[in-house]
Design brief:
There is one protein chain. This protein is an all-alpha fold. It folds into 2 domains: 37 residues; 151 residues, Lysozyme (Orthogonal Bundle), CATH 1.10.530. 29% of the residues are buried.
Length: 191
C-alpha cells in the first residue's frame, strides 16, 4: 500500500476546490441566464391583474412568455395582438359581456390593457372549467367550443373536467409550454 503524501493531498484538495468553484459558478450563470430568459417584465401590471382577477402570477407570466415572449407589439398571422395575443373576436366578446370601457382593438398593444384583458379571459376560463388551469389554458388557445367537445369524449377526457390528450397538436404543445413556463416562473420567483 502506497503512502499518501502531503503533496498528493494538496493536489486533491486544490482540484476539489476548483471543481466545486466551477460548479457554483456554472449554477449561478445558469440561474442568471434563466432569469434573463424568464423575466418579470410588466411585474406591476401583472400583480394588479393577478389581484383583480384571482389568477396566479406565474400563470400570467407563463402565458405572456409563451404567447409573445414579452413583445407588446406582437401580432400573429391569425391576427392575435399584444403580449397575451388576444384575438379580435375575444376582445369583442370581452367588451360585450365583461367590460364597460371604450378601448379599441389597437389599445391591445398597450401592455396594461392587454394584460388586463388576457388575465380576465383566463379568469373566466378557469371559473368555467371549475378551477382546472390546464383545461382553461387549452381553451385559451384552442377555443371553448373545441375544449367542451373534447371533455365529452372519453378518448380525450376520463372525467369530463380534465384533458388527458388534446387532438390539436398546436393546442397540445401550447398547454405543455405554458405548464413548463409556469413551473419555471414558480421555481425562480414564487416558491
Amino acid at each position: 500500500m502506497k503512502k499518501i503524501t502531503f503533496k498528493t493531498v494538496t493536489v486533491l484538495v486544490i482540484t476539489l476546490a476548483v471543481v466545486v468553484g466551477l460548479a457554483f459558478m456554472l449554477r449561478g450563470l445558469n440561474q442568471k441566464v434563466t432569469r434573463e430568459s424568464f423575466p418579470l417584465k410588466y411585474d406591476e401590471i401583472v400583480e394588479a391583474a393577478s389581484q383583480k382577477y384571482g389568477v396566479d402570477k406565474a400563470l400570467i407570466f407563463a402565458v405572456i412568455k409563451t404567447e409573445s415572449n414579452f413583445d407588446p407589439n406582437a401580432k400573429s398571422s391569425a391576427g392575435a395582438i399584444g403580449l397575451m395575443q388576444i384575438m379580435d373576436n375575444t376582445f369583442e366578446w370581452m367588451q360585450a359581456y365583461y367590460k364597460d370601457d371604450a378601448y379599441t382593438l389597437e389599445d391591445l398593444y398597450d401592455p396594461a390593457v392587454n394584460i388586463d384583458y388576457g388575465t380576465e379571459v383566463l379568469s373566466v376560463l378557469i371559473k368555467k372549467y371549475d378551477g382546472c388551469e390546464d383545461t382553461a389554458v387549452a381553451a385559451y388557445n384552442g377555443g371553448t367550443g373545441n375544449v367542451d367537445e373534447w371533455l365529452k369524449d372519453p378518448q380525450y377526457s376520463d372525467d369530463g373536467k380534465t384533458l388527458k390528450y388534446v387532438p390539436f397538436s398546436e393546442t397540445e404543445n401550447y398547454r405543455k409550454k405554458v405548464a413548463r413556463n409556469k413551473s419555471i416562473y414558480t421555481q425562480l420567483y414564487f416558491s
